[in-house]
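Quick log. Single chain, no ligands specified.
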Amino acid sequence: MYTTTLNTHPQEPATLVQATKDPHWRSVMNEEFSTLLHNGTWILVPPVCASNLVGCKWIFRIKRNVDGIVARYKARLVAKGFHQRSRLDYHDTFSPVVKPTTVRLVLSIAISNGWTLRQLDIKKCISLRHPC
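-> predicted structure:
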């Protein structure tokens, strides 16, 4: 006889209230917030009546290994940039994106030299103002 158990795997929270009840999510949220502060991501300033305030929200993801076991919990605090208006709230945008040509070049150099490749998630020391 076969039996199945539903919801045996942890689920991503749908709300901030759900996330704050779980110590795993609270821990990764604290880590994310500390990293943003350490890197000088923003400066908290008092609101001006004529300004458009850009809110933020938490995004929660569970990263799993190939076998389905939880590898880590990931929480990101993201700005709701869709509330901004060009030339009023911002003038320039910057998004550090790696081009496919650069990835192919790095991979071919690594293979040519027999180097091993690893995945890397950079969290700290991204800001030039705070070198490690």
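The chain has a mean pLDDT of 79.
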